[in-house]
Every structure is written in structure tokens, then in C-alpha cells.
TrEMBL record:
UniProt catalytic activity: N(6)-succinyl-L-lysyl-[protein] + NAD(+) + H2O = 2''-O-succinyl-ADP-D-ribose + nicotinamide + L-lysyl-[protein]; N(6)-acetyl-L-lysyl-[protein] + NAD(+) + H2O = 2''-O-acetyl-ADP-D-ribose + nicotinamide + L-lysyl-[protein]
Organism, scientific name: Alloyangia mangrovi
Keyword Cell division on entry: no
Function of the protein: NAD-dependent lysine deacetylase and desuccinylase that specifically removes acetyl and succinyl groups on target proteins. Modulates the activities of several proteins which are inactive in their acylated form.
UniProt cofactor note: Binds 1 zinc ion per subunit.
Catalytic site positions: 112 (proton acceptor)
Official protein name in the record: NAD-dependent protein deacylase
Record comment regarding domains: 2 residues (Tyr-60 and Arg-63) present in a large hydrophobic pocket are probably involved in substrate specificity. They are important for desuccinylation activity, but dispensable for deacetylation activity.
Binding site for NAD(+): 16-35, 95-98, 178-180, 204-206, 222
Length: 236
């Protein structure tokens, strides 16, 4: 509990693919990662989807099936515990689409969408995706066959940016876990938070592109270093 007369810290946490690596889900840019096996322009852009929607659905259907089988690890569990037990606000922003934060019992802001979402490219209606999605499935609202995964692709605007900016401006601690710092706007969050006066900490297996912007570094696998970091915060 916070000492009397002190307000509890507001914490904003950004997570990336590295937090789910030990749950068996490959990252994007580590050796042998997803972007070594697939071309971004084919499977993660609106243009790629327009060219070959079946290929794009196959890619996300496979990832959805893998994520459905995956279990959260100790890092996801620790963040859920932090959200439950920290007396101040804990805002979890994730670039991940795997749903493992929710499986661990946390609430996350999904800035890059979610594998379990379907989106009508014609009218914008969202609904729960079936395990296997197809482009010719009619939208439940407008009936047009324009079903796409509710995933933010390259060239598209991430979700909840205004809300996230407000949290970054008002947080006391900003942590980035398991993200390479190569994709904006998420890669710029550390600077926004630091500018607003927050203490910044990076938790990663190795250096990221934005490591130099962080005041503190914790190095190691997420399943080991995140529970330790959470324990420290809760015992302060
Ligand atoms: N524990 C902690 N960190 C790890 C672990 C681990 N066990 N394994 C890998 N990492 C770190 C790597 O060191 C790297 O910095 O996770 C990071 C993974 O980086 P990326 O593969 O680039 O994933 P991410 O940063 O989440 O990618 C951002 O790129 O293609 C898009 O939309 C996609 O949301 C994704 C975005």
C-alpha cells in the first residue's frame, strides 16, 4: 500500500511480442521470426489484403489457431496481479493480438487489434471472429463479403491513440516489455512519457532500438524479470 499522504503511482505498461515468446508464440524480428517467414507487404498491409485476401486470412487463421492453444506465462500473470493489487492505476497497452493478457486476467488496450476480432472492411462493423475466417463471409450488418481480421496493418492508424496519449502524459512510471522499438507510434511512447516526467524502464531480453531513451533497464527473459519487477513495485 502507498504510504499515507502519498498518492500511488500511475503506471503505463507497453507490451510487445517478447512477452509471449515463452508462451510459444514467435516474435516478429528475432531470428527466424514471423517477418523472416512472411513478407509484410503480402500479409500485413491493406494492399496485400486487396491483392490476395485468402493468403492473408490463411496467415491470421494459423496465428489464431496457435494463440488459441497458447497459455499465458509468469510475465502475463504478474502484470494481471499488478493490475489487481497496485493501489494506483495500471494501464496495460499491448501491441500483441494474441489475447494472452486477457487469459491471465488482465485488461489491456489493444492498439494493434486482436486475432479474435473480425471487421467488415466495407462498413466497419466488428464482431467475434470464428477460428477460421474467410473473405467471402457476409458482414452481419451490411451483408457485403468484406470480412477482414480486426488487426491494424502497416499504413493504418493504431487504435486508442488519444486515450493512450492522455495516459502517457499523466503517468509516473512507464515500462516497455519485450518490444523491439522498431514500430511507431508505440516506439515513441517512451519519449512522450519521459517528457511528461515519468520514470522509464525497459524490460527485454536484449537491447532494443529505443533502449537509450529509457532511464532504467532490466535484462532477461520476461517470465523471470517481469514478476521480480512487479514484486518490487508492490512492496514499495
Ligand atoms: N523476454 C523478453 N523479451 C524478449 C523475449 C523474452 N523471452 N524474447 C524476445 N524478446 C524481445 C526481443 O529482444 C525484441 O526486442 O522482444 C522483442 C520482439 O520484437 P519484435 O519481434 O519486433 O516485436 P514487437 O516489438 O512486438 O513488434 C511490434 O511490429 O510487425 C509489427 O504489428 C506487429 O505489434 C507488432 C509490432
Amino acid at each position: 500500500m502507498a504510504a499515507q499522504g502519498r498518492t500511488a503511482a500511475k503506471i503505463v505498461i507497453l507490451t510487445g511480442a517478447g512477452i509471449s515468446a515463452e508462451s510459444g508464440l514467435g516474435t516478429f524480428r528475432d531470428e527466424g521470426g514471423l517477418w523472416a517467414q512472411h513478407r509484410i507487404e503480402d500479409v500485413a498491409t491493406p494492399e496485400g489484403f486487396a491483392r490476395n485476401p485468402l493468403l492473408v486470412h490463411d496467415f491470421y487463421n494459423a496465428r489464431r489457431a496457435q494463440a488459441a492453444e497458447a497459455l499465458p506465462n509468469a510475465a502475463h500473470a504478474a502484470l494481471a496481479r499488478l493490475q489487481r493489487e497496485h493501489p494506483g492505476e495500471v494501464i496495460l497497452v499491448t501491441q500483441n493480438v494474441d489475447g494472452l493478457h486477457e487469459k491471465a486476467g488482465a485488461a489491456a488496450v489493444h492498439m494493434h487489434g486482436a486475432l479474435e476480432g473480425a471487421l467488415c472492411a466495407a462498413c466497419g462493423t466488428r464482431w467475434q471472429a470464428p477460428l477460421v475466417m474467410r473473405p467471402d463471409v457476409p458482414c452481419p450488418h451490411c451483408a457485403r463479403p468484406a470480412t477482414r481480421p480486426d488487426i491494424v496493418w502497416f499504413g493504418e492508424m493504431p487504435y486508442f491513440m488519444d486515450e493512450i496519449a492522455e495516459h502517457l502524459e499523466s503517468c509516473d512510471i512507464f515500462a516497455a516489455i519485450g518490444t523491439s522499438g522498431q514500430v511507431y507510434p508505440a516506439a515513441g511512447f517512451v519519449q512522450e512519457a519521459a517528457y511528461a516526467g515519468a520514470h522509464t524502464v525497459e524490460l527485454n531480453l536484449s537491447d532494443s532500438d529505443t533502449s537509450r531513451s529509457f532511464a532504467e533497464h532490466r535484462v532477461g527473459p520476461a517470465s523471470r524479470i517481469v514478476p521480480l519487477w512487479v514484486e518490487e513495485i508492490l512492496s514499495q
